[in-house]
Amino acid sequence: MVHDINGYVTDTPYLRDFKPMLAPAWLDYVALVAGVEPPARQDGFAWCDLGCGQGVTAAVLAATHPAGIFHGIDAMGTHISHARRLAAEAAVSNVRFHATDFAAALELDLPRFDYIVAHGVYTWIDRDSQHALGRFIERRLKPGGLAYLGYNAMPGWARDLPFQRMLRELGRSIPGEIAVRVTAAAELIRSLAEAGVPSLANSFIRRELTERPADYPPAYLVHEFLPAAWQPLYVTEVRAAMAANGLLPVGSATLNENFDWMVLSEEAQRLLAAVREPDVRELARDFFLDQRFRCDVFARCGAALDAGERADRLVSGAFALGRPVPAIRYSMATPSGPLVYDNPTSRAIVAGLADGPRSLIGLAKPVSQSDVRTILTLCAAGDVMPVEPGQAAVRELNRALLRRCGGPEEIRWIALPCGTALELDRDLIRLLRDGEEIDECRFPGWRDFIAAHGVSGQ
Ligand SMILES: C[S@@+](CC[C@H](N)C(=O)[O-])C[C@H]1O[C@@H](n2cnc3c(N)ncnc32)[C@H](O)[C@@H]1O
To answer: What is the pTM of this model?
Structure first.
């Protein structure tokens, strides 16, 4: 038998992962890129994760944002127990976890939020739960607040619909424990595909399972594919539902997707110019992108910024390097060929951030349109990321994270004082845990990168 809450499978816990795009600074940056005023945070703020899973993102963000109050809501008791345990291990006091479903969460005694996020939830739950999630945002998001939905999108999932249905039905019919069933079901599907069944020939996931099996552990397969209500949605459907809750689309937390010139060919841009209605244009754009996963940011009554204000606010925000200097290529692939941004401004920004996070005032001056474009490009490429201007204490949290290294509840992230976390290679995290020197040949640039972020081992 498979156990569920409104069709959501609860037999096995999900992965323990951090999602950088749920950080307040990242969401603020998406708003700024779109010319929308981010939430005012000078008197503190409140943030809520709907379907927070194991609570890693909420706990890390709480520890790295002492001025905020953080809440995580999830219907799975095992997830919430883990989340509370992690917060206790790391002595994080500004986070609360609630073991409840979205319908019951409507009645909880909670503050109004500046940020409400839901990653990997909306297209896995049934209509009633989606409705409750929407009502929660409608009731609890402050005017000027930002909401984030990360969800499986159409049309990119179209060629994997048969894969999901087959995995779910096989997973239900095979006897045994859930991880064993889903693994056996995936194996059977592989055999079907090898036998040449046409409906699996173009499955992206089936290819992924063969090429990168380590990225798809049983816990992932169970939560991704077994929920009865699993259904990827078109952007127009999600936008219509959010509009009914008083929310307007702002942009994407997948940063390069905010710019046509980064993700569309010139021909695609020309064809899309003929589609006038913005939501329908976005839908048509998803056809060009073959969109599989959207990271949508919405605002309630977000105030517009003029172009000058937008540029000033973008440059004066704090930024950090997203990867070690030797890994920065100053070039990224686009449908129109490589986009090269190897220019003096890019180099100056990277050199300035190599010593640690800071605002870009003074690094790109005077601020021209092309400087702003360079900053946007560096962020979209993942070389640079928007972060907090202050430095939070992360020692306790990182000790707790490093103590788990190699154990059954390993979390392969370390918290950064600038309000986010870095995913680390397993061997690198071991070196940090053991307080050992990071070998420059094996991990080029990582020693300086981690040191510049003010992080050390045990
Ligand atoms: C795929 S997981 C994503 C977890 C987390 N957001 C992440 O990205 O790591 C979906 C989560 O939604 C929770 N969930 C599903 N239905 C729910 C409901 N009706 N109310 C509250 N939580 C729910 C599940 O327990 C699960 O933890």
So the answer is: 0.96
